[in-house]
């Protein structure tokens, strides 16, 4: 299900564990079709994230994993023709899937 993200990209990133721009562990783990996969870890918080970044520097998929929970989000950005209306709202479309890992 697609839902608009009700915040700006800057506000969204600030609320994420990697929003400060620094992680205690990080590595590019793959490249495919112009996309880069980055893994970042925060051992003190028992949290890790896997980000897929497109060739325009936008997050297109995120998997955030904590001790017992994993959240997957896929981001869909408006096409250039629809960009004017989207900028007025500043809302990319987001798909949210939540998975609970077995203990």
What portion of the residues fall into strands of 2 or more residues? over 45%
Low-pLDDT stretches are 91-99
Number of domains: 1
As a whole number of angstroms, the C-alpha radius of gyration is 14 Å
Our count of helices gives 2
Mean pLDDT level: 75
Short description:
This protein is mainly beta. The protein has helices spanning 9-15, 83-89; strands spanning 2-4, 25-32, 35-42, 47-53, 59-65, 69-76, 93-100. It has one domain.
Can you walk through the features of this model?
Strand 4 and strand 5 form a beta hairpin. This protein starts with a strand and ends with a strand. About 9% of the residues have low confidence. It is globular. The chain has one domain. A 7-stranded antiparallel beta sheet has the order 1-7-6-5-4-3-2, with no helix packed on it. The protein is mainly beta. Helices cover 14% and strands 48% of the residues. The longest helix is centred in the N-terminal third of the chain and has 7 residues.
């Amino acid at each position: 299900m697609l839902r608009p993200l009700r915040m700006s990209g800057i506000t969204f990133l600030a609320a994420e564990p990697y929003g400060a721009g620094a992680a205690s562990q990080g590595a590019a783990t793959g490249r495919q079709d112009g996309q880069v996969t980055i893994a970042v870890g925060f051992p003190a918080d028992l949290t890790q994230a896997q980000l897929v970044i497109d060739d325009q520097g936008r997050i297109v998929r995120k998997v955030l994993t904590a001790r017992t929970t994993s959240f997957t989000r896929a981001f869909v950005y408006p096409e250039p023709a629809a960009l004017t209306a989207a900028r007025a709202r500043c809302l990319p479309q987001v798909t949210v899937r939540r998975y609970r890992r077995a203990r």
